[in-house]
Specification:
single chain, 239 residues, mainly alpha, globular
Length: 239
Amino acid sequence: MKKEVGLFRPLRFDQLDLAASLLSNYELNDAFEIMNEKLSNELKGNVGRRKVINNITRVWSGGKKQPSNFQKNVLSRYCNANHDSKIAYQYLMTAIAFPFFRDAVNIVGKYLRMTGKISNAFLLKEMENSYGSAESVYKGTNAVVRGLIDWNLVDGMTEKGKLIEIDKLRISDEFLKQLIVKVLMEHYNTEYIQLDQLNEDAIFFPFNYHLSESYFDNLTNYEVIDDHSGKYVHMIGQR
């Protein structure tokens, strides 16, 4: 089965921030109409602009759908977060919304850890190995690259055509740590993740954080299971 790309345009901080604010303060249709008006000068074509808005709002509400209770909770917390935490929220919610994004940043993270840099051309080749050689894959990979640069999570200017590792963003927001768990369980389609992997997975290369066993003691939807192969975090109920 052909894997969906879905992501075709860079998800900029300012546009995602606008969408989150509108979805938090207006009914869904009103939020779409306001966003359509605000982006009309930048994006001229009506059909193309609607597709871009659907791409942006997919992060917060699954496209033109009412936000779920989970998404409403995220939006409420996001709107009260500081700038750095907002970047992390945008990144993690994009990772939940787009499997293509997760696959791409996983590759970026692995190579940044090994060499501190990765070429855009190499990333595209790796994504084509999984998704095929198509214009949509090129656009999706370019969207990931430009998004990471816009979030200031990598340096895309020092060496042309390469992403360079920079200082990590510190995660102190406790709910963001829960999103880290959710992202990884979505990525591996599982309800069990090794505790060590939660702290080491390449998907989270831009972040500085630590999830200890005691962190999960007061969370009703998670438990830590200790067996002969290590400690696992288990999500109780639906992901």
